[in-house]
Design brief:
- The structure holds two protein chains of two kinds.
- By secondary structure, chain A is an alpha/beta fold.
- Chain A has helices at about 1-20, 70-85, 100-110, 125-130, 155-170; strands at about 40-45, 50, 60-65, 90-95, 115-120, 135-140, 145-150.
- Chain A has five helices and seven strands.
- Chain B is mainly alpha-helical.
- Chain B is built from two helices and no strands.
- Chain B has helices at about 5-20, 45-55.
- The longest helix of chain B is centred in the N-terminal third of the chain and has 18 residues, at about 5-20.
- The radius of gyration of chain B is 24 Å and the shape is elongated.
- The chains are: A alpha/beta, B mainly alpha.
- At the A-B interface, helix 1 of A face helix 1 of B.
């Protein structure tokens, strides 16, 4: 009787330890079809930023860091994408999660980013979104709903992004601007 | 206390100590893990280390080069 009780206690303790250790990957809080989590922050140009101000636009919320190799591959493509679609109401919000801002600035010297770069040195925004991978991007439609999530980046994703953004932006009006 | 109990207690203690030292690093927390110095090869100071090695061994290509057959390095 005593041995059984003893064994149960040991098993419960072991289970508790390993469930905390192995199940510690935090679940992403963003869901497709639900409103995007709003956040405020400071941009790299020292301006205040509020995601709510992008309402009515098709937005990519991207998380990147200078130490993340796929992020460095992805950003030049985002520059292309932004230049291609910005006139139709497209915006990219690139949230940099470097704890040392200088590293981000150094990268941006080599690769100038024409869109909004929000600094998240305290990692408060990224902790809210809990992306499963770096980089992670969230495509948001004009109503502020999450349309898709992109985890990581490879060259083959480029056409998918183009098609998705083009579809979400809708037909081009005669002035070239959005409908 | 029986010897069996003591062993069990010790094992439990070791597991507790080891288990409490483990954490899962989140994808956005890998700044320091992504540093090149954390890799096994292509260390930033590899060239410097090789130079030091060559000076100490008084030989060129002390790391990769094949020896001249003298058996001195």
């Amino acid at each position: 009787m005593f041995r059984k009780l003893e064994l149960s206690v040991v098993l419960i303790i072991l289970l508790a330890i390993f469930s905390t250790v192995t199940g510690a990957t935090e679940k992403a809080t963003i869901e497709i079809g639900k409103p995007i989590l709003s956040f405020k922050g400071m941009t790299v140009t020292n301006e205040t930023f509020d995601l709510a101000e992008t309402n009515g636009k098709v937005v990519i919320v991207n998380f990147w860091a200078s130490w993340c190799l796929p992020c460095r591959t992805e950003l030049p493509f985002f520059v292309e994408l932004f230049n291609e679609f910005k006139a139709r109401g497209f915006e990219i919000i690139a949230v940099n999660i470097d704890t040392k801002v200088d590293n981000a600035r150094q990268f941006m010297k080599k690769t100038p980013l024409p869109f909004t770069v929000v600094l998240d040195t305290e990692q408060a925004i990224v902790s809210l979104y809990k992306p499963e991978m770096m980089p992670s991007s969230y495509v948001v439609d004009r109503k502020g709903m999450v349309h898709s999530m992109h985890k990581g980046f490879s060259k083959s994703d480029q056409e998918m992004y183009r098609l998705e953004i083009d579809t979400l932006l809708g037909p081009v009006s005669s002035e070239g601007a959005r409908q | 206390m029986r010897a069996g109990h003591l062993v069990l207690l010790l094992v439990l203690l070791v597991v507790l100590v080891c288990g409490s030292g483990c954490i899962t690093v989140q994808p956005w927390e890998k700044e320091y893990l992504a540093d090149p110095i954390m890799g096994f090869d292509d260390w930033p100071d590899q060239a410097f280390q090789q130079e030091i090695s060559e000076i100490r061994e008084a030989s060129a290509l002390g790391k990769e080069g094949s020896g001249g057959g003298c058996g001195c390095n």
